[in-house]
Design goal:
The protein is of the alpha/beta class and 534 residues long. 42% of the residues lie in helices and 8% in strands. The protein contains 18 helices and 14 strands. It has helices at 2-5, 19-30, 84-92, 124-128, 144-150, 164-178, 181-202, 228-234, 258-264, 283-287, 296-299, 308-311, 318-331, 369-394, 403-412, 425-460, 472-486, 494-515, and strands at residues 61-63, 70-72, 79-81, 99-102, 134-137, 155-157, 210-214, 220-221, 239-240, 255-256, 268-271, 303-305, 345-346, 350-351. The strands form five sheets. The chain has a four-stranded parallel β-sheet, sandwiched between helices. A four-stranded parallel β-sheet has the order 9-7-11-12. Helix 2 crosses helix 8 (228-234) and helix 14 (369-394) runs antiparallel to helix 16. The longest helix is centred in the C-terminal third of the chain and has 36 residues, at 425-460. The radius of gyration is 31 Å and the shape is extended. The protein starts with a helix and ends in a 19-residue tail after the last helix. The relative contact order is 0.10.
């Protein structure tokens, strides 16, 4: 699954908040937003590479990463890190001066020697170029371990942590492997202290608050309580709406439908896909999603965008980020769920006479001009693609027709166009009587399917619906089967008619089931003053 594969690579699809970063993010929401007192700022500088070093530790040492026991005969002096988390861990335990190269995703700390090396698809030859005596990665991809073992380079595979204890163990392990046991132990101790402090500062008033953690939108991936993310958030007593939808094949990262999220009514939404690289989701974007306005988290303003890159760390940058987030959260006024909506409508008086909240049009802009231009441009592009497709198809077939003569012959059939083509009578027959009818039939079928799909999506206001999803195909199949078995003597039209009726019935059942229990959107009413939202 994409969520698991990119768990440690900070890619555009999925990012995971880890350890202190996760705890601080939740503490900001639960404690920072309700606090009026200032909080201190922890030091944000990465640990000094040489401070607290236990370089004199006895070597050889043996550690047990995910790829089995690895023995290092001497303290490594040239380390290559292919994991952003490992890079930060190495600097945190004091091994920064030993790091000679990191992968392209490792952007913290700022002084790390970033290269074009890939952690997802590592190239053994490119890694060997840096003459490493230790390589740390999050996965054994492309046969990394076998390739480097052949040339005598030890490799530690440190996969995405499943629990806090796993995270602590990886840091201790890197400390041992690099000769910095004492500083690794201090790093772990500090992390435990900070997480405990954040849990304590959040208090207990939020116990059993339901939340939705968004890893990506459209499709909507989340993380359950059994993942590293969910376990850390669970320290605060929150309830995860994704737990009920989890299946064994999901690995803790289920894909949720919009209907599921809306009907679950989470009281808190945490956006881990807030950066532009991850989709640019924000509270404003979430509020505009169809049906989401009725979710308690949206109506009360508890949709919280997270700094994807900074919050996905457990290094020394987290305390500074936490402090800035708390200050920003305290400045944010409560969100009015009825603000910035179109003029209110009363059941008895119609549109209100209050001032409109719609944004003003740009000076000199014609509101109707832009949609018209966009529509014309879309039609033009569609026609151009269709023409290219028809011409390309006309040039492909068992008979070898001269391309220029074929194009000329086709253009000659256009009214008021008089061109001479060198195609022979036989070639013309192949083109006009055999090839073109099939091409036209294919274009018509494709166009009708497109119109049907667009009609479905327009009616249901969902760009993902299709005949299979809404029961049309199943209903049509059932109707046709019934006609064939029981209405054999009703004539040749019985099967298509029965299939059409079955398709309508299938869509009706699917629509009724999907609409059942859907929450109503907030209602703002009465002449510009808010009576209440329901």
């Amino acid at each position: 699954m994409l969520a698991r594969q990119r768990h440690d690579q900070r890619g555009p699809a999925v990012r995971s908040l880890t350890a202190v970063g996760t705890a601080l993010a939740v503490a900001v929401v639960l404690a920072g937003c309700s606090s009026s007192s200032s909080t201190g700022t922890s030091s944000t500088a990465p640990a000094s590479p040489g401070s607290g070093s236990s370089a004199s530790a006895a070597f050889p040492v043996t550690v047990s990463p995910a790829n089995g026991k690895v023995t290092l005969k001497a303290q490594p002096k040239r380390i290559v890190s292919l994991s952003p988390t490992a890079t930060e861990d190495l600097y945190a335990v004091g091994a920064g001066k030993q790091v000679v190269a990191v992968d392209s995703q490792s952007n913290y700390p700022s002084g790390a020697p970033v290269t074009s090396l890939s952690g997802l698809t590592p190239n053994a030859e490119a890694i060997i170029k840096y003459s490493p005596d230790l390589v740390v990665a999050s996965a054994d991809s492309n046969g990394l371990v076998a390739a480097l073992t052949k040339v005598g380079v030890p490799v530690l595979i440190e996969p995405a942590a499943a629990t806090l204890d796993d995270a602590y163990q990886q840091i201790d392990q890197l400390g041992t492997a690099t000769g910095h046991d004492a500083q690794a132990a201090q790093t772990v101790s500090t992390m435990k202290t900070e997480i405990a402090a954040d849990v304590k500062s959040a208090g207990t008033a939020h116990q059993n608050l339901s939340y939705y953690w968004e890893l990506s939108a459209n499709p909507y991936y989340s993380a359950t309580s059994k993942t590293f993310i969910g376990q850390v958030v669970g320290l605060f007593g929150l309830k995860n709406i994704a737990d009920a939808a989890d299946k064994a094949a999901d690995g803790g990262y289920p894909e949720l439908s919009q209907e599921y999220i809306v009907t679950a009514k989470p009281q808190l939404i945490l956006l881990a896909d807030n950066s532009a690289a991850d989709g640019g989701q924000s509270p404003a974007v979430v509020a505009k999603r169809p049906g989401w306005a009725g979710i308690p988290a949206v109506s009360t303003g508890l949709v919280v965008p997270l700094n994807d890159d900074v919050a996905s760390r457990w290094g020394r940058v987290c305390p500074s980020w936490s402090s800035r987030s708390r200050r920003r959260c305290r400045r944010r006024p409560p969100r009015d769920p009825c603000a910035n909506r179109p003029p209110e409508v009363s059941a008895s008086t119609g549109p209100s006479a209050g001032p409109s909240t719609a944004p003003a049009a740009e000076p000199g802009a014609d509101p109707a001009a832009r949609p018209g231009r966009r529509t014309a441009r879309a039609y033009g592009i569609a026609v151009a693609f269709l023409a290219v497709a028809v011409l390309g198809s006309a040039l492909v077939g068992a008979a070898d027709l001269n391309p220029l003569a074929t194009v000329t012959a086709l253009l000659d059939r256009i009214p008021f166009v008089d061109l001479h083509s060198s195609l022979s009578p036989l070639d013309r027959a192949v083109l006009y009587e055999i090839r073109m009818p099939r091409i036209v039939l294919g274009a018509l079928v494709g166009g009708l399917l497109s119109l049907a799909g667009a009609g479905y999506q327009g009616v249901f206001r969902n760009p993902l619906v299709d005949s299979g999803l809404l029961g049309a195909s199943a209903g049509a199949g059932l109707g046709a089967t019934v006609a064939i078995v029981y209405l054999g003597g009703a004539g040749p039209s019985a099967v298509p008619v029965a299939a059409f009726v079955g398709a309508l019935a299938g869509v009706a059942v699917a629509y009724a089931a999907g609409a059942a229990g859907a929450p109503a959107p907030p209602l703002c009413c009465s002449r510009g003053s808010r009576w209440g939202c329901s």
